[in-house]
Amino acid sequence: MLDNDIRIIAERLLDCYEDSYRIYRPRVKMIISNKITDINYIEHTLDGLLDIYTDKGFLLFIELLAYYKNVNYKNARDYLEILKEEREEEYKDFVKRIKKNNDKKKNNK
Fold this sequence. Notes:
By secondary structure, this protein is mostly helical. It is built from five helices and no strands.
C-alpha cells in the first residue's frame, strides 16, 4: 500500500514538473526572442525554473541564464552560484558539458 502511494505521489510530482515546463518554456522563448531586459521579470522566471527538477527544466534554466548574462552579468553569475549550491550534481554535469563542447571546438579548428 505504501509503495503504491509513493508511486502515485512521484507520478503527480513529475506531472507538476511537466506542467511547469509547458508554462515556462514559452515565457523563456518570449524573453529571449523579444530581448526583454526587465530584470525582475527575468529573475522571477529563473526562480520558477529552479523548481523544475527535470533535465528539460534545467536546460531551460541554462538557456535563460545564458541570455541573462548579457543583460546583467553579475546577477546571472549569482544565479549560477545558487544553482551550484542547490543542484550540485546538475551543475557539475553542466560544467562537464561545457568543457566537452569547448574541447570539441578546439579539436575542430
